[in-house]
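User: For documentation purposes, I need each entry recorded in a consistent format: the amino acid sequence on its own, followed directly by the corresponding structure tokens. There are two entries in this batch. Please keep commentary to a minimum and don't merge the entries.

Assistant: Recorded as requested. Entry 1:
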Amino acid sequence: MTAQRNRLYFVLAVATLGGTAAYIQIQTARGALQLLKKPLPIRKPLVDMNRDAMMPFRVMREDRLTAEIVENLGTQEYINWLLQEVGPRDAKAVHFSVTYYTGVQDQVPHVPEECMFQGGMTQESDTMLTFKLPRLGQDVQVRRLSFNTPRQLGQRSYVYYTICVNGEFHGDRQPVRIKMAHPLESHLYYSKVEISLDGSGVDNPARFDEQAAEIFDRALTELFKSHWPPPGSERGGMAAPGNGAAAG
């Protein structure tokens, strides 16, 4: 009986896999399922992002990365700015970066919890936040991390980031992967937006949240307005200039 039962399970498993494969092939041929995503080119290069849109956070410095770092980054579309709020004497410098990816399969951006560890820093905390962003008009999931620097006792680095996948925000790579594999979306882009600043071990990180939320609100609003593909373009591509037809 055991051998017969095992053979039955084997036959059922093969039949199930075969049926699933056939269904995927049929639906993919019909265009109902999209397993390999088409690219969604950025509408405007990130390097041309409107700096005035970030005010009262002024761009104090713009850093361009070396060719080796850009290769490791996996994209030519990035900005790396140093911001500082205009007015307050004790305003902290804030590092602000955006990266944009499209036409790349099975890859998600580098995340701070891995990069900082490789840089010799020790992770102290990991908190998932939801920022209510009035300009953007929606809630955004943001991850807040803190790291200790071994060679600088008492100093702590705070990092906030979110990953936008086809207009949907996530603070964790697993839901990013799930969204990237959405079977009904034919096109794909994803973009990581990150903020970091230095504090100390006695700082209450919640006091940095308000500043981070304001920067995210201004940045994400401008990115949707001028750079990222418009909502809906993940299904069929962007409309060609001058008409309503989808391109891609």
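Entry 2:
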Amino acid sequence: MSMVVVVTENVPPRLRGRLAIWLLEIRAGVYVGDTSKRIREMIWQQITQLGGVGNVVMAWATNTESGFEFQTWGENRRIPVDLDGLRLVSF
């Protein structure tokens, strides 16, 4: 199990409701929780299916040098870039 953070912008209410099933919404569009890899992947599948025209970033704790991984989805997304094993963000 690892900590997961999901930040959403302009997503449909049905996705926000679906995320609230597994994660705690601590602020509008910001969700946190402690999930297994299987549940995290299932949440990501829901995000890609129900995201509409919005955009989403999901970050979770890992045993990497930075201590976390992340992925993005949607039109206004920032793109993850690997720089010698360190994940950075390209705009």
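Summary note for entry 2:
The first helix runs from residue 13 to 22.
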